[in-house]
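WARN no homologs supplied; continuing
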Amino acid sequence: MEQYQLSMIILFIMALMAITLMWSLLSPPIEVKVIITRSHLDGKQMVFRIGKYGISAVNAPMLHSYPFFCEFAVLRFTDGDDFELTYQTELTQDVVVCGTAKEAHEWLDNAIAHLKRIQ
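OK structure emitted
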């Protein structure tokens, strides 16, 4: 099980870094930056900044039906790099749980595009 979890975490990080690179090449005016990569809840968390908004992506064994691929939350930056969860966007009124890498990539692509539009 540990090897499976490690493989999923590595795949998760590589996929999110590829998406970040793709968006930064396609849309330079509003950058997508990874500002935090850390261990979180016995897994990994990455925080992306997209202008005044952001996305938290967590891959960890939590209360949802694990194993799942990723949990996303939308963030609003308040001051500098300080942020808080926000449910005041059209993206979600709660966290979003994706069961597969494909589902996570699709949600993240749509979320980044949406957050760039609402700046």
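The chain has one domain: 2-117.
OK
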